[in-house]
């Protein structure tokens, strides 16, 4: 895709709403000269935030008024039925109507996935959309899916996730011929449940996917694969566990450096190293999970994201829209299904 990109932003979603989304959007306009953003939410509130930011280029920012907001703890079915004028839904409807090339929301994950699937629909050949995010590794980053959208998956679902992840890693993140690994409880051929084994068979038959085999949990952060595939139950547990361990280590270090005068001095000496470490594993850098497999670009930002982190999600949405990721996935799936039928 060339020319300007329009993104619709759910300005009321997340823990902070407009106080995060508005400044993040305005900073994104500075990074992307061809970008236009539509802030979706309560117009009076949004215009107050725009005035506070003293932003003058009204041609690149517009506001779409809506009257409802989906709460962070609201059941997805209730949001789908009764919140037809919510900022989340209107944001997605703009993508469906072709008024926006993609969208970003920090709102309720379950409601976002349910509404996105209902409005945008899945691509032909894709049974279920999946959530993919980027995680740090020893030498860079990896891309993992599914992170919670699908608790139970068949081998065919995992195969589709592998295709979607490989396309996105290549097109959006510039990974040439990405290595795809299946997350398993061992690297041996006999390990794993029937879904994982069936997915491995399908991937071994496919020449378009650079499948490198099973990887274990620690292989995620060693960077043993560029795309890590698993079902949403396993993916979400792995993600939350890694976040918990990172918080635990951070808290242990903070306590140790405050234990006595000597440890405080040691902490001051180590401060540059600690800051560098924090920068490398800062989760804000990796914010923005892609809802892959839909007929449109949709990004989920973490609900507690600050404006820097929300901006990272906007950056990913811009790249997905520029590259036309849904069309690329559709084309790859068509080729693979055609090859399978012709075999």
Sheet bearing the most strands, described?
Answer: 11 strands, mixed
Strand-and-helix sequence, N→C? Answer: EHEHEHHEHEEHEHEHEHHHEEHH
Query: Counting H and I runs of at least 4 residues, what is the number of helices?
Result: 13
Going by helix content, strand content and strand pairing, the class is: alpha/beta
Count of distinct strands: 11
Shape: globular
As an assembly, this protein is: single chain
Unreliable spans are: none
Mean pLDDT: 92
Helical proportion, percent range: 40-55%
Looking across the biggest beta sheet, what order are the strands in?
A: 3-2-1-4-11-10-5-6-9-7-8
Radius of gyration: 21 Å
The portion of residues forming beta strands comes to 15-25%
Question: In words, what does this structure look like?
Answer:
- It is a single chain.
- With 343 residues, the protein is α/β, with parallel strands linked by helices.
- It has helices spanning 18-31, 43-53, 76-82, 87-96, 109-120, 155-173, 194-205, 217-222, 232-257, 261-269, 271-281, 307-323, 325-342, and strands at 5-10, 35-41, 61-65, 102-105, 130-137, 140-145, 179-183, 210-215, 227-229, 289-292, 297-300.
- Helix 7 (194-205) links the parallel strand 7 and strand 8.
- The model has no long low-confidence stretch (mean pLDDT 92).
